[in-house]
Every structure is written in structure tokens, then in C-alpha cells.
Amino acid sequence: MRVRLAKAALCAAFAFSLSGAAAAPDRLPGGGQVIVVRTGAASVAGVSLWYRAPSSGFETQPDPGIGRLAAAAVAASQPITGTPLGRFVESVGGKLAVTSYPDSIAVSALVPADRARDVVRAMTASFFAPVLTDEGLVIARRDMADEALYRQFSPEDALGDALTAALFADGPGHFPALGKPADLGAIPLARVRSYAERAFRPGNAILVLTGTVAPDVLLSAVPGRADATAGAEPALVQTPSLQPAPVATSDPERGIGLGWTGPPIADEREATALDFATDYLFRADTGTVQKAVIPTRAAVTGKFVTYHDPGVVLITISGGDVDAARTIVDGALANLRKPLDAATFAAARAAFEYHILSDIQTPGELADTFGWYTVEGNSDYAPGADGLRGRYFAAAGALTPAFVAATVAKYLDRPGAVVAASASQK
Question: Which CATH number fits domain 239-423: 3.20.20.70, 3.60.15.10, 3.30.830.10, 3.30.499.10?
Fold first, then answer.
């Protein structure tokens, strides 16, 4: 009963906060999309630029990590006039972040609401006509080397990279989004600049404004360089491996990764069903698997990542008694191939809807959600689009125990990827 009451209270706040959400993206001066999601909870604004672009580059010979490197280098480079974007955002009291995924790049800033116009102008000026300098590239390489150092101590990240590489025979998902520092150091400035000029053009941009922002803030966006023929990049092709071979790796601690390809983002019913299934099993603190593995002292994660085509289910197990935790995970997946009883399902679906709502409350969370679903090609399916009446919550409300079980069986009975990580010797 406490969950239902909390959900009802949160739904009321959520409906109010998204009452001004744009029903459909408008256009930027250079042809790109813009989405405005207004909230009034705090004097904070989120400003994000998303691009559909492979993190490993557009060339036949891949450069893993070049997307993240190019975006970070642009943000760190001194423009012809003015201040580097990263330094400018800091000067107005904000924080800039560059993130990369196999098929997209995001440049995001959380800033005081009264400086949103200035940040929109500075961000679009920096990226719609990108300037890259040797100094900016050095800074970007240094920052990425630091990030890679921390990442190598994350079993979840290491297993996840190995899983996606095994699941895809080619395409962006086959390569790590971050890349190795030594490899990044070998990519010349000219190649990074060529990537930036193609990926970051205005027609390929999605500008997401969230938080306490006025609709006319988007008017601060600069048009960028003229290129009427260059629209958005097409959806990126991913070729799944038909029979993924088992992969052995060496990590700081022993672990196991399990992965499967799933439905595309266009199949909203099946994608939502796998979102529900992974939430029910693996949600931190509440997932049934998370509770069951406590005695094993293993760290377990599980998620469905909603990509354009196909999505992926990724499960990682590391630390503690990995074998015992694997047995629990396998049993839970087998049980979910059969329909849950009505009472259990109703409670799980209510909790699932509550979790989705709780994950899209802040300007940063909203920017990530709307940017992700738009760059993957289905902005109307984003949780929160059209408030609680939108397509995501309609799909969640229409789930049934039989449909969830059938969807789990359909995808998880297919050949999947298995990664076994042995503890590295120091």
C-alpha cells in the first residue's frame, strides 16, 4: 500500500511538472531537432546536444573512442573568439559532461536557469562550427585516459563492453565507446576534425532543453555553417552475431556476463516488456534477484538497453560467490519464462511504473531520457512524452503476465553471449 500511495503522489507532481512539455520536436535554425521539457521545481536548466554518430567513427577502419574524443576536444578547444565551452560552463556555475554510446554522442550541461540562453548560444556556437586545437586534443586525451583508468576497475563496464562486442559481428556496438588511451593517442588531429565536422553539423543535432527554461531560449541557438543538404545521419546498422562465441577475459575480479539481442525501439510492446522484466529481477534494492543474491556477496546488474535495432539485454555478475549467483540468475530467468500470478504481477507493474517515474524527475534525468529516445528514433515513446498519457506508460499499462513471459522466452531462448572473466594476477 505504501508503494501505491507514493506512486500516486509522484504521478501528481510529474503530471504538473511536464504540463509544458513540447508535444513534438521543433527545428533548429540549421535543421536539427529541439525538444523543450519545462519544469518549475528548481532554478536549474539542462542543456544537451545529442548526435547520432558511431563512437568508432565513420571510416571503414574503426577508431574506437573517436566520437567521445572529438566531442571532448571541441569542448576544450579555444574558439576563434571567446572561451572554451567547458571553461565557459564552469564560469557560469554549471557543469559540462561528454558521454558516448555505441551509436550516439551527448554533450550536456546543468546550469543556473538564468544562464540557459548563454549556454545554448555557447554550446551551439562551439559544436555547429567546431574548432579543434592541439591543446584541446591534449586535454581531451588526458581526461579520457583518466576515465579509462577508473573504468578498468568496474567489472560491470568491462563485462558489458565484452558482451556487446560478442553480440554484434560489426557496427558501432562491436567496439568500445571509450577506447584505449594508447589507441586514442595515435589518432591524428585531422582525423578527429573530419569526424567532428560530419557528426556535429546542425542538421544532425538534437537540442534538449529541460528544467526551468522559457520556450524562447532555443532562439539563442546559432545557425551554424550552412549546409542545406546535410540532414540527420541515418539510423546505424548493427549486425547481430548468429552464434556468439564464448569470450574469456581478465579483469580485477572474477565475473560472468550474459547478453542477448532484443526488440528494436520501434517494437514498443516488447521493449517495454523487457524493461519490466529486468526491473522486476534486477532493480537495485527491490529486484527479486538482488534480494536472493545477498548471501552470495556477488554484485549483479541487469538491464535492457533500448537501441534503434536491436536492443540488448545485459547481465553482469562479479565478486563474491559468482557461481552461486549465476545459479540464482539462471533460475530467475527460467521462472520468468512462465507467467507471474496475477497478484504478484500487479504489484510488480505498479512498482515498475513508480521506478520509471522516479528516474525522470530532475532536469538531467529528463534530458538523458528525451535525448536517448529521440536519437534512437522514437521520441514519442520516451517515458514522460505527453506525461502519463504517453505511449510508454500506455505500453506499460497494457502489459500482461502472459505477454511478458512470451517476450522473455522469445528473446532469451535465442543464442546469447557469455563472457567469463578470470581475476587478473597482480
Answer: 3.30.830.10
Distances (CA, A) of 241 to 24, 53, 164, 195, 260: 36, 22, 10, 27, 10
- How far is residue 185's CA from residue 397's CA, in Å, rounded to a whole number? 49
- What DSSP string runs through 349-377? HHHHHHHHHHTT-SHHHHHHHHHHHHHTT
Q: What are phi and psi of 400, to 5 degrees?
A: -130, 155
Asked if the domains at 16-220 and 239-423 fall in one CATH topology, the answer is yes
pLDDT one-digit tens code per residue, 264-321: 999 999 999 999 999 999 999 999 999 999 999 999 999 999 999 999 999 999 999 9
Domain ranges of the chain: 16-220, 239-423
Query: Which residues are CB-neighbours of 150 under 8 A, at least 6 positions away?
Result: none
User: What does pTM read for this prediction?
Assistant: 0.91
What's the one-letter identity of residue 161?
Answer: D
Whole-number Å distance between alpha carbons of 296 and 188? 47
Class of domain 16-220 as given by CATH:
alpha beta
Q: Select from 305, 240, 231 the least CA-distant residue to 271.
A: 305
Angle of helix 116-128 relative to helix 66-76, nearest 10 degrees?
Answer: 120
